[in-house]
Design brief:
Blueprint: H1 2-11, H2 16-25, H3 32-59
Length: 74
């Protein structure tokens, strides 16, 4: 459910209120505040440690490469 909420909100740009209506169709009575809090906590507790680990690993490198070209498919 949380993965679906992340995908709808951040990949598909769908706000939480339509998601609440969709979950109601599946018999899950969840409100916007609850969905928003789940996303915040999951980002803080789940994604943040991964980000910090990758950031620390990059800081240890002598140099970094980046591809700054624009994606023509967007």
């Amino acid at each position: 459910m949380l993965a679906q909420d992340f995908q709808l909100k951040y990949e598909m740009s769908i706000p939480t209120y339509p998601q609440v209506n969709e979950w109601k169709m599946f018999g899950l009575g969840v409100n916007r505040n609850t969905l928003s809090n789940w996303l915040i906590v999951a980002g803080r507790d789940g994604v943040s440690p991964i980000y910090k680990e990758r950031h620390n690993a990059m800081l240890k490198e002598g140099y970094l490469h980046a591809d700054e070209t624009k994606n023509k498919h967007n």
